[in-house]
Design brief:
This protein is mostly helical. The chain folds into two domains: 1-70; 73-106. The chain has helices spanning 2-35, 40-69, 85-103; strands at residues 74-78, 81-84. It has a two-stranded antiparallel sheet with strand order 1-2. The chain is elongated and about 65 Å long. The mean pLDDT is 86.
Amino acid sequence: MALVELSDLIFAFLTLTALEIILGIDNVIFLAILVNRLPKAQQTKARILGLSLAVLTRIALLFSLTWMMRLTTPLFSLFSWSFSGRDLILLGGGALSDRQERLGNS
């Protein structure tokens, strides 16, 4: 049982690492395009500020995701199902995604 949990953990870690690398490369390319439009004197400052804000935003989003996944205390029950904050967030996200797909705005 522990081996299965370890392999799941390693897979999740590798997936998250790959996504972070891809998003990091995307940020670098996007910032390079925008920074090239600035005067030479401002480019270095803008590049450092942009990358710093991108990293801080990504860290904040990861912490908020960790916080949301810990919202497991039941808030209310409907029939035989209990709903927590995490359940409501996931249901809301799924409903929004379904709505966008039906409207063709995905």
